[in-house]
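I hope you will forgive my troubling you with a question about protein structure. I am sending you one protein, given as its amino acid sequence and as whole-number tokens for its backbone shapes. Thank you for your consideration; the sequence and its tokens are set out here:
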Amino acid sequence: MAATKKILLACNAGMSTSLLVQKMQAEAKAEGLDYEIAAYPLAQALDHVSEANVLMLGPQIKYALDEAKEAAGDVPVTVIAMADYGRMNAKKVLADATAIMGE
């Protein structure tokens, strides 16, 4: 059995991504995916990034992409598309994370 994949979402305070995380968790469960998904403020996300398979930044902190990539090392980092974030399109964001993780 494969290990649980970990997806981290980050935004300014970790609050706006929390709703998206809840929707992504429901989508992952519906798809039978063994994913652990969490949201943190950026600074905390960077503290946990080494435990993750992918770090996804909210579009409002796109400016921190270089900093996040440097802190993440080999962990892929991406910015969630504004349209997907604004619509809370959990299915699309989850599909993007899955593709990045090579699933």
User: Anything to note?
Assistant: The mean pLDDT is 93. DSSP finds five helices and four strands in the chain. The longest helix spans residues 16-30.
